[in-house]
Protein backbone atom coordinates (compact mmCIF):
# COMPACT_ATOMS: atom_id res chain seq x y z
CA UNK A 1 0.00 0.00 0.00
CA UNK A 2 1.36 3.47 -0.86
CA UNK A 3 1.87 5.83 2.03
CA UNK A 4 -0.81 8.50 2.58
CA UNK A 5 -0.36 11.88 0.93
CA UNK A 6 -1.61 14.99 2.71
CA UNK A 7 -2.03 18.49 1.32
CA UNK A 8 -1.06 21.22 3.81
CA UNK A 9 -2.70 24.39 2.50
CA UNK A 10 -2.24 27.90 3.85
CA UNK A 11 -4.29 31.00 3.14
CA UNK A 12 -3.63 34.73 2.98
CA UNK A 13 -0.99 36.59 4.96
CA UNK A 14 0.57 33.42 6.34
CA UNK A 15 3.61 34.23 4.16
CA UNK A 16 4.08 37.12 6.64
CA UNK A 17 4.52 34.83 9.65
CA UNK A 18 7.48 35.87 11.78
CA UNK A 19 6.96 39.53 10.89
CA UNK A 20 3.23 39.70 11.34
CA UNK A 21 1.81 40.46 14.83
CA UNK A 22 4.42 38.29 16.62
CA UNK A 23 2.59 38.75 19.94
CA UNK A 24 -0.29 36.76 18.43
CA UNK A 25 1.38 34.46 15.88
CA UNK A 26 4.89 34.05 17.35
CA UNK A 27 8.26 34.43 15.69
CA UNK A 28 8.29 31.31 13.48
CA UNK A 29 8.25 31.96 9.74
CA UNK A 30 6.26 30.02 7.14
CA UNK A 31 9.51 28.20 6.23
CA UNK A 32 9.76 27.14 9.89
CA UNK A 33 6.17 25.87 9.72
CA UNK A 34 7.04 23.89 6.59
CA UNK A 35 10.03 22.33 8.41
CA UNK A 36 7.77 21.37 11.34
CA UNK A 37 5.42 19.69 8.83
CA UNK A 38 8.27 17.92 6.99
CA UNK A 39 9.61 16.54 10.28
CA UNK A 40 6.15 15.43 11.41
CA UNK A 41 5.56 13.78 8.01
CA UNK A 42 8.85 11.87 8.23
CA UNK A 43 7.96 10.64 11.71
CA UNK A 44 4.47 9.60 10.56
CA UNK A 45 5.73 8.16 7.24
CA UNK A 46 3.36 10.25 5.11
CA UNK A 47 4.00 12.48 2.10
CA UNK A 48 3.04 16.15 2.18
CA UNK A 49 2.61 18.99 -0.29
CA UNK A 50 2.95 22.31 1.57
CA UNK A 51 1.56 25.44 -0.12
CA UNK A 52 0.51 29.03 0.62
CA UNK A 53 -1.47 31.56 -1.41
CA UNK A 54 -2.96 35.00 -0.90
CA UNK A 55 -5.55 34.37 -3.64
CA UNK A 56 -8.95 32.91 -2.74
CA UNK A 57 -9.57 31.32 -6.16
CA UNK A 58 -6.16 29.67 -6.14
CA UNK A 59 -6.91 28.12 -2.75
CA UNK A 60 -10.27 26.87 -4.11
CA UNK A 61 -8.52 25.36 -7.17
CA UNK A 62 -5.86 23.66 -5.02
CA UNK A 63 -8.59 22.12 -2.85
CA UNK A 64 -10.38 20.84 -5.98
CA UNK A 65 -7.12 19.34 -7.28
CA UNK A 66 -6.76 17.32 -4.07
CA UNK A 67 -9.61 15.03 -5.10
CA UNK A 68 -8.15 11.71 -6.23
CA UNK A 69 -4.57 12.92 -5.61
CA UNK A 70 -4.41 13.25 -1.82
CA UNK A 71 -5.79 11.29 1.10
CA UNK A 72 -6.50 14.26 3.36
CA UNK A 73 -6.21 18.01 3.75
CA UNK A 74 -4.75 20.07 6.59
CA UNK A 75 -5.75 23.68 6.02
CA UNK A 76 -5.09 26.98 7.74
CA UNK A 77 -7.53 29.04 5.70
CA UNK A 78 -6.52 32.21 7.60
CA UNK A 79 -9.05 34.99 7.02
CA UNK A 80 -10.80 33.08 4.19
CA UNK A 81 -12.03 30.65 6.82
CA UNK A 82 -14.20 33.46 8.18
CA UNK A 83 -15.43 34.70 4.81
CA UNK A 84 -15.32 32.12 2.02
CA UNK A 85 -18.35 30.00 1.19
CA UNK A 86 -16.49 29.09 -2.04
CA UNK A 87 -13.71 27.51 0.02
CA UNK A 88 -16.25 25.63 2.15
CA UNK A 89 -18.01 24.34 -0.99
CA UNK A 90 -14.70 23.16 -2.47
CA UNK A 91 -13.80 21.32 0.74
CA UNK A 92 -17.24 19.67 0.79
CA UNK A 93 -16.85 18.69 -2.88
CA UNK A 94 -13.55 16.84 -2.56
CA UNK A 95 -14.85 14.22 -0.18
CA UNK A 96 -11.64 13.98 1.86
CA UNK A 97 -10.94 14.21 5.59
CA UNK A 98 -10.12 17.81 6.53
CA UNK A 99 -8.46 19.20 9.66
CA UNK A 100 -8.58 22.98 10.12
CA UNK A 101 -5.69 24.72 11.88
CA UNK A 102 -5.35 28.20 13.33
CA UNK A 103 -2.14 29.25 15.04
CA UNK A 104 -3.96 31.61 17.40
CA UNK A 105 -6.95 30.82 19.58
CA UNK A 106 -9.61 32.44 17.37
CA UNK A 107 -12.17 32.14 20.19
CA UNK A 108 -10.15 34.46 22.45
CA UNK A 109 -10.01 37.11 19.74
CA UNK A 110 -12.49 39.44 17.99
CA UNK A 111 -16.03 38.11 17.57
CA UNK A 112 -15.70 38.02 13.75
CA UNK A 113 -13.02 35.33 14.14
CA UNK A 114 -15.21 33.03 16.25
CA UNK A 115 -17.06 31.60 13.24
CA UNK A 116 -15.40 29.83 10.33
CA UNK A 117 -17.21 28.38 7.32
CA UNK A 118 -14.38 25.88 6.89
CA UNK A 119 -15.22 24.26 10.23
CA UNK A 120 -18.40 22.88 8.64
CA UNK A 121 -16.22 20.76 6.34
CA UNK A 122 -13.62 19.85 8.96
CA UNK A 123 -13.59 16.69 11.04
CA UNK A 124 -11.60 18.58 13.65
CA UNK A 125 -10.22 22.01 14.40
CA UNK A 126 -6.95 22.81 16.17
CA UNK A 127 -6.48 26.39 17.30
CA UNK A 128 -4.40 28.25 19.84
CA UNK A 129 -1.48 25.81 20.00
CA UNK A 130 0.82 27.97 17.91
CA UNK A 131 2.66 26.57 14.90
CA UNK A 132 2.90 23.18 16.66
CA UNK A 133 -0.79 22.87 15.82
CA UNK A 134 0.26 21.81 12.31
CA UNK A 135 2.16 18.79 13.69
CA UNK A 136 -0.86 17.84 15.81
CA UNK A 137 -3.09 18.19 12.74
CA UNK A 138 -0.83 15.90 10.68
CA UNK A 139 -0.89 13.32 13.47
CA UNK A 140 -4.71 13.54 13.67
CA UNK A 141 -5.31 13.26 9.93
CA UNK A 142 -2.88 10.34 9.62
CA UNK A 143 -4.78 8.53 12.39
CA UNK A 144 -8.08 9.23 10.60
CA UNK A 145 -6.76 7.94 7.24
CA UNK A 146 -5.37 4.81 8.90
CA UNK A 147 -8.72 4.21 10.68
CA UNK A 148 -10.55 4.55 7.34
CA UNK A 149 -8.17 2.26 5.44
C1 LIG B 1 -5.33 32.55 11.65
C2 LIG B 1 -6.48 33.25 12.38
C3 LIG B 1 -7.31 34.07 11.43
O1 LIG B 1 -8.37 34.74 12.14
C4 LIG B 1 -6.45 35.14 10.76
O2 LIG B 1 -7.21 35.84 9.80
C5 LIG B 1 -5.21 34.60 10.18
C6 LIG B 1 -4.47 33.55 10.88
C7 LIG B 1 -4.42 31.78 12.62
O3 LIG B 1 -3.65 30.95 12.15
O4 LIG B 1 -4.44 32.02 13.84
O5 LIG B 1 -4.72 35.08 9.16
O6 LIG B 1 -5.87 31.61 10.74
UniProtKB/TrEMBL annotation:
Pfam families: DHquinase_II (PF01220). Substrate binds at residues 76, 82, 89, 103-104, 113. GO terms for biological process: amino acid biosynthetic process; aromatic amino acid family biosynthetic process; chorismate biosynthetic process; quinate catabolic process. The record marks 20 as: Transition state stabilizer. Homododecamer. This is 3-dehydroquinate dehydratase. SUPFAM superfamilies: Type II 3-dehydroquinate dehydratase. The keyword Zinc does not apply. It is an enzyme of class 4 (lyase).
Amino acid sequence: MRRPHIAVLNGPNLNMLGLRQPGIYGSATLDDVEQICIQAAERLDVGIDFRQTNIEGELVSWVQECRGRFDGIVINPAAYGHTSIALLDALLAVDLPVIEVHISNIHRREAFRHHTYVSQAAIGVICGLGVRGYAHALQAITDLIEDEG
